[in-house]
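Case study 2.
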Amino acid sequence: MYTEIQQQTLDTDWFFTHENHIGFVASGAGKLPETVAKSSENNEKLISYFRDLPEGN
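Prediction:
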């Protein structure tokens, strides 16, 4: 879980989907959606996954 202090001090990357699209958001130290704030472990896995992908065309 991302604490209130973490949300206010970190620029947290998070992701969402819409149909077959993946969206990326940087929080800019703003309040995270509740579902993201409650699942920091899953969010960190997604961040690692996307950062580890090879650069594409």
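Residues 40-52 form the longest helix (13 residues).
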